[in-house]
Amino acid sequence: MNRPAGVVERITVTSQLLHANLVGASPARTVDVYLPPGGAAGCPLLVDLVGFTGGGLSHTRWKAFGENVPARLDRLIASGAMPPVAVAFPDCFVRLGGNQYIDSVAMGPWERFLCDELVPAVEGRYGCGGVGRRGVFGKSSGGYGALVHAMRRADVWAAAACHSGDVAFEWCYLPDLPPALRVLEPLGGSVAALLAAIEATDKPGEERLEALMMCAMAASYDPDPTAPFGVRLPVDPLTCELDPERWQRWLAWDPLRMVDACAANLRTLRGLYIDCGRRDQYNLVYGARQLHRALDRLAVPHRYDEFDDDHNAIDYRMDDSLPFLARALA
What we know:
Blueprint: E1 7-14, E2 28-35, E3 45-49, H1 69-78, E4 86-90, E5 103-104, E6 108-109, H2 110-126, E7 134-139, H3 141-152, E8 159-163, H4 169-172, H5 177-184, H6 191-199, H7 206-221, H8 244-251, H9 255-267, E9 271-277, H10 284-297, E10 303-307, H11 318-329
Parallel strand pairs: 3-4, 3-7, 7-8, 8-9, 9-10
Antiparallel strand pairs: 1-2, 2-4, 5-6
Helix pairs in contact: 3-9, 5-7, 6-7, 9-10
């Protein structure tokens, strides 16, 4: 079908904030920017945060038997389902495999990079966005990032959409800590050895990647500057007994624990969208339901949806969230 098509431009944003981190994250970050038909000037700006092991560029590449996000945007805009928007797809991948988009002495100050460097760079170049005209969205770790940014940085973001984001840490992280120890124990507990094993093969395997994910979470929520890559898991490496002090530092970043203190920020948003699959294999639907209940209790306006699917291959949910954000910001 012939329809007006936007264009994707690739730029580099060189950060002054990302120079100091323990995972070797480069301060020069590649960013793809979708410009709608007719150009981005005066349009709202959306920023796409991808899930663990992903990078923003994965959402702009060609996709077999489906649409990448720019093609989805072209269709939704051409059909009238949403007004035109500009969308930035930053590459925030780091060597530990992913990003929670918060500030960490180990992973880097990603919240500040996105809010204080990426957004001004894109807006200054393309004339889009501005106060009250910025939204952030993502799935899984990206959904977590979008939600926490909405909670903490309502001065920057006016709308947010969280697809299957990390909420209720007891249910989404604790079950993965024993398997992570089983992977790390033969490697002497070494994160460097785990990375070497993953990087030495074309097929690292789900167990290794999920162990690496737990390391990335530790480096995000409770970084230890004295440990390699800043990783110190919140459990005894031999018995898997929980370290209460370390675990509390993780829980401080759980959206369920943050929501009361951040309710005033959330009430200023022009749109907040949360959804999750009822069969989510990381138990995230239970956290989503608890968060929905808390938002109702706090009188925070939001849209909450559940759908009959699991955690994987749910990009089609953007057919709902992208128009929601664009209309909220238009």
